[in-house]
């Protein structure tokens, strides 16, 4: 049986690994000239590591160095609004790992036969019968997997009347700062903007910044430095030590809930199926879960029944996590002074363990 995978990012390569390990012929069509990933850091949470374990790759990622979950949320002045029991989270759910996105892509790509990888192929249309029209001609397969991102050609081909991805009102910057002392992973909330920092195993600091802005606006590093100059340490120091070429900016989109993830002999996964805000850090983890679940279902039940089982398993779960992700970040983007003052007063009064309870459905996934 042949499987064509549209998109060579984390979800697409994970699907290729999963199907290849089951003895299926795979072909990965990637628009870019090479299989790589731009970006900065990426935290793989316990459920994502279990998905990688199902591919036999989890221990190789852990070997690069474990990480701590988010220690909590601070105000721009530095006082704690939410404190997480980091040790309890790790005991309960398992380890976290922080890697460069490119390192995870390299790990997955190395587990796929080189002859299965076709870079520089621009997919233009996908039909439910497994026909894929692309810049190199036309290909057919028993199963097509659309792993081609939030602006998925596969999804638009199958469901042209569905709503387009929607801009959530804030843009995101990701950057890598040079090695310097920081106290674990933390996120800081202001009025309509926030800053997070996560130590990397190699000593560098992965930082992300989100701020309310019109879609398509561009803000450079100098403006970010000025914007956060009066926030608590180490935020100004992290921005001051960063080089302009280390900063990436992307507008933040999410996908309205789809009525199905499958059509005929085609399935969508990852951002193509359920693009979500980055507030819970679950985007890559859910794509890994999708890939493992899809391959297992098809291998066990055959294409049609397997696709139905995949849709039943993945659509409710991913759409629930997308909703929770949207809700988790909403208060950080309030701009009203009375509301943010109330937020900063109420959050420290919330029960301990609320964060862990809210994420239990995400972290406890197994295949």
Please name the defining characteristics of this protein.
about 375 residues, alpha/beta, FAD/NAD(P)-binding domain, seven-stranded mixed β-sheet, about 25% strand, FAD-dep_Monooxygenase_BioMet
Can you describe what's shown?
- With 367 residues, this protein is of the alpha/beta class.
- The protein has a single domain, classed as FAD/NAD(P)-binding domain, CATH 3.50.50.
- The chain is 36% helix and 25% strand.
- It is built from 13 helices and 19 strands.
- The strands form 4 sheets. Strands 6-5-14-15-16-13-17 form a 7-stranded mixed beta sheet. Strands 8-2-1-12-19-18 form a 6-stranded mixed beta sheet. A 3-stranded antiparallel beta sheet has the order 3-7-4.
- Helix 10 runs antiparallel to helix 11.
- It is globular.
- This is NAD(P)-binding protein.
- InterPro entries: FAD-bd (IPR002938), FAD-dep_Monooxygenase_BioMet (IPR050493), FAD/NAD-bd_sf (IPR036188).
- Keywords: Monooxygenase, Oxidoreductase.
Can you give me a brief rundown of this structure?
The chain has 367 residues and is α/β, with parallel strands linked by helices. The protein is built from 13 helices and 19 strands. The chain is globular, with a radius of gyration of 20 Å.
List the helices and strands and how they pair.
Layout: E1 2-6, H1 10-21, E2 25-30, E3 41-44, H2 46-54, H3 58-62, E4 66-67, E5 72-75, E6 80-83, H4 86-93, E7 96-100, H5 101-109, E8 117-119, E9 123-126, E10 131-134, E11 137-140, E12 143-146, H6 153-158, E13 166-177, E14 186-189, E15 193-199, E16 205-212, H7 221-227, H8 235-240, E17 247-254, E18 262-263, E19 266-268, H9 271-274, H10 283-301, H11 303-330, H12 337-346, H13 354-363
Parallel strand pairs: 1-2, 1-12, 2-8, 5-14, 12-19
Antiparallel strand pairs: 3-7, 4-7, 5-6, 9-10, 10-11, 13-16, 13-17, 14-15, 15-16, 18-19
């Amino acid at each position: 049986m042949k499987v064509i995978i549209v998109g060579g990012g984390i979800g697409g390569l994970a699907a290729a690994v999963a199907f290849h390990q089951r003895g299926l012929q795979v072909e990965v069509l990637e628009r870019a000239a090479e299989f790589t990933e731009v970006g900065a850091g990426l935290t793989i949470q316990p459920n994502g590591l279990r998905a990688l374990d199902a591919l036999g790759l989890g221990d190789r990622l852990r070997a690069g160095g474990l990480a701590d979950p988010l220690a909590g949320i601070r105000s721009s002045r530095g006082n704690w609004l939410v404190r997480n029991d980091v040790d309890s989270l790790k005991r309960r759910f398992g380890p976290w790992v922080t890697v460069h996105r490119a390192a995870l892509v390299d790990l997955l790509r190395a587990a796929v036969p080189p002859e299965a990888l076709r870079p520089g192929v621009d997919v233009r249309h996908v039909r439910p019968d497994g026909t894929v029209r692309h810049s190199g001609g036309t290909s057919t397969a028993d199963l097509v997997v659309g792993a081609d991102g939030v602006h998925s050609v596969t999804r638009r081909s199958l469901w042209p009347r569905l709503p387009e991805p929607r801009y959530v009102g804030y843009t995101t910057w990701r950057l890598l700062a040079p090695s310097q002392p920081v106290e674990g992973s933390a996120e800081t909330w202001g009025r309509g903007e926030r800053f997070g920092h996560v130590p990397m195993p190699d000593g560098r600091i992965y930082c992300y910044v989100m701020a309310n802005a019109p879609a398509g606006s561009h803000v450079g590093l100098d403006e970010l430095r000025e914007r956060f100059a009066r926030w608590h340490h180490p935020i100004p120091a992290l921005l001051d030590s960063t080089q302009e070429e280390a900063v990436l900016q992307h507008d933040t989109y999410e996908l309205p809930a789809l009525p199905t993830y499958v059509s005929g002999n085609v399935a969508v996964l990852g951002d193509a199926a359920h693009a979500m805000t980055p507030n819970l850090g679950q985007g890559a983890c859910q794509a890994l879960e999708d890939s493992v679940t899809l391959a297992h279902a098809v291998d066990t039940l055959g294409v049609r029944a397997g696709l139905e089982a995949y849709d039943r398993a993945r659509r409710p779960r991913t759409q629930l996590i997308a909703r929770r992700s949207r809700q988790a970040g909403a208060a950080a983007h309030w701009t009203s002074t009375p509301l943010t003052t109330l937020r900063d007063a109420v959050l420290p009064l919330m029960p301990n363990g609320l964060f862990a309870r809210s994420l239990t459905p995400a972290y406890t996934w197994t295949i």
